[in-house]
Amino acid sequence: MERATVFPPGRVTIVGVLNLTPDSFSDGGRFVDRVGVDVRAAVGAGAALAAAGAHVVDVGGESTRPGADEISAGEEIDRTHRVVEALSKELAVPISIDTRRAEVAEAALDAGASVVNDVSGLGHDPRLAELAARRGATLILGHMRGGPATMQRDISFADVVAEVSDELAASVTRAAAAGVSRERLCVDPGIGFGKLLPHNLALLSRVGELKERLGLPVLVGPSRKSFLGELTGDPVGDRDTATHAACAVSVFAGADAIRVHDVGGARRAVQVALALREAAAESSR
Q1: For the domain bounded by 12-221, which CATH number is listed?
Q2: Residue 259 catalytic?
Q3: Going edge to edge, which strands form the sheet with 13-19?
C-alpha cells in the first residue's frame, strides 16, 4: 500500500481510533469484558468511523496511556486479530494496527491490515522495521521516551520541536536501514507521550516546522488527551470540542493527518482549517 493511498498529498488523512482494550484512558472497556472482545460491536464501530469520514481505521489492543501495564503479545493478538480480519473484508479503507510488537503487527498484516502504527518509533521492538519492509506496509513512527509505565517521569526538553525532530529522524534512519521506503513512512510527534502541557502546545502549533525538518507526512493525535483537560477543565468524555480545536490549529500549521475518536466533528474542523490555510497561502502570494 503506497503512501499515495494512505497519506496522499493535498489531503488531510483522518485516522479513526478503535480501541479494543479494557483500560484505555478514553474508551477502554467499550468492546472488551472478561469473556473477550465483542467482535460484532467492534466491527460495527469501525464501520461507523469509516462512514463518518475516516480514511484509515486504527485498531489497538494494548493501552499506551501513561502508567499502563504491559500485556503479552498473545493477549494483544487475541484482542485484535479477528476484528482486523473482519474490518479488512468489510471496509474499503486501509486498516492500521496500533502496536509496538512485531508479532502483533505480523498477525494483523496476515489478517488484512496494511498500516503499522508504532507509538514507540521502533524503540520497543526494532523488528517492526524489517517486517514493514518485507510486507510493504506503511509505517507510522511515533515519538516516545521510555514506555507507558515510565514516560511521564523526569520530563525535560530544551527545545521540544528540535529534540523530537532529531529523535524521530533517528527512527526514520533505522526504518530506512531495514528497507522501508520513505514513501511508506509517516511520523507522529507523540502528543501526550512523555510531554508536559507546554511541550504539547509547541508541537501542535509548530507542526509545520517538524514537517520541514523531516520531509515526511506528520500525523498528530491530540484526541481527548489530558493536556486538553488541563486547559479546559473538561473530563475525558467531554473533550471532543477541545480536540477539534487542537486538530484545526495543527492542520492550519501544516499537519498531514490527525488521529481522533470523534471522526465526524474532526472532519468538519479539518475542512475549516484547510480553507483558512489555503486563504493564508493565497494572501502571501
Answers
A1: 3.20.20.20
A2: yes
A3: 185-188, 138-142, 115-118, 95-98, 56-60, 13-19, 257-260, 219-220
